[in-house]
Amino acid sequence: MRIGEIAALVGVTPRAVRHYHHLGLLPEPARRANGYRVYGVRDAVLLARIRRLTELGLGLDEVRDVLAEEAGRELVEVLEELDADLARQEAVLRGRRERLAGLLGEARAGRLADGGPVSPELAGLLAGLDGTEGLAKSPTAAKDREILTLLDAVVPDGERARLMGLMHEVAGDAGHVYGLLDALVDAAPDDPRVKAAARALARLLPPGIGGFALPEAGSGGLADVLFGELAPAQEAAVRRAMERTREGVGDAEE
């Protein structure tokens, strides 16, 4: 058989046969006077074995080890290792598909953030916010969604889960506070409404939120992202509310 014939018989390409020759997996056959390779049944059997091993997922170096082991013990060990590796990959893929199914459900229901996909914790929080009256028309709520989506991506897993859990506790009561913050968009930081909005927000925030460090103004990085898009009066209200929560004064009169 010529190279094209053996390749067609076994179900590989002539290029693959030449590559196996180059790697030493398939010995070079005898050549005719005209230089053409002549393959026999033994060559076809070996080539078919190489094809079967690669189809099982073995790398070519592993195939070489298997072919070099005459007793077959190495083949059993390699195949057992391959089976265990495929089981691990299968578990990872199953977990990804389960998460994807949840994300698809959120996306089809219109609840997936524009910056998604997001974590299950944020998806649950956003689902709670969707049921809050007046939230759809609030510019501050829209910005808050973007900030939450960013935090979801950059905060370490343990802290993210805790933060989203705390926020989830108050999601259903956020509509009134968003309205107060919306009203401050053109206000000065010393506007009397800043204190009222801060007290309302402090009343809403769970005590555990005080455990998160408050970034200093102008400190750069995440702090600039968190407060950079807020109007000055809105930033003042949010900072005041977080300070009051951390100090444990909540919505007490100042």
UniProtKB/TrEMBL annotation:
Residues 1-69 form the HTH merR-type domain. The keyword Nucleotide-binding does not apply. Signal peptide: none annotated. The keyword Ligase does not apply. It comes from the Bacteria. It holds the Pfam family MerR_1. Keywords: DNA-binding. GO terms for molecular function: DNA binding; DNA-binding transcription factor activity. PANTHER family: HTH MERR-TYPE DOMAIN-CONTAINING PROTEIN, REDOX-CYCLING DRUG-SENSING TRANSCRIPTIONAL ACTIVATOR SOXR. This is MerR family transcriptional regulator.
